[in-house]
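Comment thread on ticket #2218

A.B. wrote:
> Attaching the input chain for the structure job we discussed in standup.
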Amino acid sequence: MSAPERNSPGRRAVLQAAVAIPAAGAAVPVLGAGSAQAAAPAAATAAGSTGGGRFDEASPRFGIAVLPDTQYLFDADSADPEPLRASFRHLVSERGRGNIAFMTHLGDVTEHGTEDEIRLAADTFRTLHGKVPYSVLAGNHDINSGTDDQRGDSAYLKSFGPRRFAGLPTFGGASPDGYNSWHVIRAAGRRWLILALDWRVSQDGMRWAQGVLDAHPTLPTVLTTHDLAWADDEGAAQLSDNGRRLWDGLVRGNDQIFLALGGHYWPPGRTVLTNDSDNDVHIQITNYQDRYYGGAGMIRHYGFDLARNVIDVETFSPWLLARDPAERTPLEAETVELSSPVDRFTLDIDFERRFAGFSPVVPPRPRPAEAVMPRGTVAYWRFDASGVASAGSAGSPVGTGTVIRDLSGHGNDLTAARLHDSGPGALTWSDDHHRGQPAHASLRFDGGKNPDRGAVLTTSARAPLNSEKFTSGYTLETFIRLPEPFEGDHAWMGILSWEGRNSDAGKTTGWSPDEPTCSLNLSPERFLQFVVYPHRQNADPTSWSHAVPVGRWMHIAVVNDGRRTVMYVDGSKIARNPAQPSTGIATLGKPFVIGATQFDERFGQGFYGWIGDTRIVTRALTPREFMTAADRNRNS
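C.D. wrote:
> Ran it. Output below, let me know if you need it in another format.
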């Protein structure tokens, strides 16, 4: 569009984009393209590993670049394709470093749709072709604007029709008329569908698009078109007449469409609508043709981050960004990057929950004990029927004296006991668990202070673990979850420990002679603290984590290779691990404890939260050997 059109407000609106987020890794290529004329195409797989660096389809972070109306760069004899070429060179060079999965153009590639303009634009797109997968759709300036997708042949169709995309690894097919297409990209460990729809989709085109969705019912979908919505000067968007037709006829009834992008109008804007499944659909418009140099090849980059459950959106011009800042003119300087709330923002999306209605995550099945006991396992406890003969129903009390078997077969069984005058609720059965945990069960500890209360699980007086020195190394692993809200004073509550004072082991370096020889605790700031008095050294090397979260499960591993100790949280090594030598643990033949830490051989408060599978191995394990190794996804 070249001037404000009033079927809504009189100006064009815009979409939002995000800067490339670094994502390392090796990519896996390959996807077979479907029939170029398929009305209900078969499922396609997608990837693509061309361009500057390899695209990592397994990384939880990836980018989709969006280009709106570039028509003023292809306007008869005043055309200048260089800004767009610079944008394409940027996408190619950042393909691996920014993990850019795809680029989609929102139409109005050219100003008049003449053969000369289309030919120059098609030649410019060769910079991208075969290096970064992409889609293009027709805007009203690319074709006869009084027609829909049944218009027949055109200069646009000859250059940007199905034949152009047939060799791309993401291309799945096109409508019989050739003006609508679909792509499948593989990113963040799953497949995503991109629909590119003509500026005016006919009823035949709508039926075709529904057929594509029906053929891919589990794929999250991004719908792209030219005329979708317009925005006021504050960036508040609403559907255009054509957008309302698409919403009613296609978007609202297909829950898998979670993001819809359009150009055509300015200024940019966005809104959120609720579909028939009561889920959010993000509606966004992006168009910068009214800005300096026809938008200067402006890119809006959508940075998907499934680890953080967000899409980070930023808008910038690679063409202007590449210039020496000292040499930029005032107009160039103000156009190089846009930072208004409709140009730079973050969308919060719980992807798993948003996609649950059409593509629910299938939780991993419980793994048998024998599958998670590597060489050197000396103790393994779990709180399901395989570990406890008398396991109760969720929420019921764990009886005092209940025995949790050591499934390693080394005789380190645990026995449940309540601290002080704690009641039945101090220790209960639970079905809650970390997604990567072998057993689908845990124990809920309700410890606290004022008065001290809680529960513990302890080995017997003669258990072999009580005297194990671990001089060749060790790995202690457990799963915990802190309640949300995290109420009350739980400073220095214990998670795992051995009974016995460090002074009884001849140690003189600790802050108190009454501190136990080994314990994993939680500080008032919710930092994990692992302190150990080694068997060989007179020392107390201590690891400190960051402030750990509440309300979600985490996996904790403490690994010692016979020389030093390293703590991992959710598979990531923490920063504050001691460099001082540490060989073994100065155990004193006294019980191992889950759920509290003794001080001066007396239990104070107990743990507050959930504890899951716990394992002890007499060697240093790598993160790939941790209990979470069978499920590398983000924690639930």
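A.B. wrote:
> Thanks. Noting for the ticket: The chain is about 10% helix and 30% strand.
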